Amino acid sequence: MTVMSHSPWWKSAVIYQTYLRSFQDSNGDGIGDIRGIIQRLDYLEWLGIDAIWVTPYYPSPMADFGYDVSDHTNVDPVFGTLSDIDSLIGDLHDRNLKLLIDFVAAHTSDRHQWFIESRSSRSHPKRDWYIWKDPKPDGSLPNNWLGRFDGLSGWEWDDRTEQYYLHSFLKEQPDINWRNPDAKQAMLDVLHFWLQRGVDGIRVDAAYRAYKDLQFRDNPVNPDWHPGMEPSDRLFEVFSKNIPEIHDFNRMLRTLVDGYGDRLLIAELYKSLEEIVKHYGANDEFHLPLNSELMSSDLQWSAESVREIVDRYERLLPEGAWPNWSLSNHDKHRVASRIGISQAKIAMMLLLTLRGTPTIYYGEELGMEDGWIPSEHIQDPWEKKAPGIGVGRDPERTPMLWDRSANAGFCSESVHPWLPITHDYSSINVEAQKHDSRSFLSLTRALLRLRRRQSALQLGDYTSLYSPSQLFCYRRFDEESDLVVVLNFSSEYQEWTLPIEFRNQSKVLLSTFMDRQGGQLGHTLELRGNEGLIVQRSHQS
After folding, report:
1. pLDDT number for residue 540
2. Is the distance from CB of 361 to CB of 17 less than 8 angstroms?
3. 255, 247 in Cβ contact below 8 A?
4. Which of 60, 123, 292, 502 is 20 to 30 A off residue 334, Cα-Cα?
């Protein structure tokens, strides 16, 4: 691998997200765990990724499956022990791999000791660690803010102390008051705890919700809302998230993380690109504010739409900021279900050849699709509270598909997995695809290997190239290599004229069909429907 020595590791890295409950069960309870990840490190090393992001493993009542934390510095017994986390960190580092973890910053569980004490009395020292408000003089709610999952009030009445507390998600997830110095320090101490333990990066969950408007003003009404939309979208969240002061929060976390050397700080932010890029700051806020554009269910999957997103993002990035890309995650439907398996291969080539740090969601390397969840097996609180409008997250969280055995190798055949196994696992699984040289997995691994060999794909420049409406073509180049990526977003044959420097002096490095490599190209490039190609210009002295 050719990487400039002063470049941070995360710029050239490929991150792999494991949804912990669904990756590998090691103890026969049908729920994935830390030991399960350790058992699968050989696979992840073979695949060729550089870092894994593990979703929350902290003690939790599981009202929101770990994003309701009741103890920030321990491990829930269903996932393992602190010793298991230490083993995971050590085993990853022995393989030169990194570990990223979630920091649930905006709220805790209502069963967290902090909140138990906070709600015990208005005079308790931890009362102000959470956001408590009196009713308005007329007895009504403190303001009109809504809970994200059900679109009902974000304020919950506490009979004992006769005040409301704020919860931006479930009532079991009271919001932390980051303006309280002691609460702030306690949360920062959580980061110190895990960074001192050796984790390599922090992903801040719901990062833009940490600070709230000091005046607690009503959010404005969305005049375009109608039934069938998410209930909470009835209001524009102007005062309950992403307020101007959030950049002070960002800088505070960045200063802390930078104190540990070469660590990575990622922010979860579902906002427009124009808003996202503000969270880089002057290279003093997040290293990587999450770019969710390619995950959006509103995205029209076409060459023109994707080209527009990529080029707009590149234009908007502040000086020195580094891009990042994802196709799916534990909150967004799988890309293969959104655009089909043929175009999902195009998407994987796109993900691993654009400028920036990519994140692969577990199973994405196989072309894994959303699972079908019968009503009696629904687990996600969002789907339960807002049924039938497509917000449920269970389908993209079904267990990883390892082999053809019952339960797809995720757990033993004698137990029920916590979510159903997807119906197509007999062919879409690691074991089957490992032995098929033209499988989705073989393509993903070939792309990852090529990325390691080609410095231009890691840290090189990006230029969008003119192309017909069905093609997205771009150039990746540095001092050592000059590549063109050509992606056919249609199911029809396409022809493209190569840039003049590539004519009669270039060759195909990789096709998404995995059947085409080498041979000198002339002036034009022919592509089959749903084909992506990486072309290299011959070295010129």
Report:
1. 53
2. yes
3. no
4. 60
The verdict on whether 268 is a catalytic residue reads yes
Task: Residue 6: count other Cβ atoms within 10 Å of its Cβ.
Answer: 5
* Residue 59 and residue 76 in contact, taking contact as beta carbons nearer than 8 Å: yes
Q: Which residues of the chain have pLDDT under 70?
A: 1-5, 540-541
Choose, from 33, 76, 110, 205, the residue flagged as catalytic. Answer: 205
Coil, strand or helix at 506: strand
Q: Are 395 and 419 in contact (CB under 8 A)?
A: no
Which of 320, 323, 322, 352 is closest to 335 using CA atoms?
352
From the candidates 268, 370, 380, 394, which is the catalytic residue?
Answer: 268
> What is the predicted pLDDT for the residue at 386?
83
Question: Residue 471 has which token pair?
Answer: 């093609």
Q: 3-state secondary structure string, 392-448?
A: CCCHHHCCCCCCCCHHHHCCCCCCCCCCCCCCCCCCCCHHHHHCCCCCHHHHHHHHH
Q: Is 205 a catalytic residue?
A: yes
Give ∠ CA 79-97-452 in degrees, rounded to 5: 135
H helix and E strand count, the chain: 15, 19
Torsion, Cα of 417, 421, 426, 430 (10° steps): -70
How, if at all, do strands 461-465 and 471-477 pair?
Answer: antiparallel
Cα four-point dihedral sign 340, 343, 345, 348: negative
- Residue 80 tokens, joined: 């393992």
238: which 2 tokens?
Answer: 């102007």
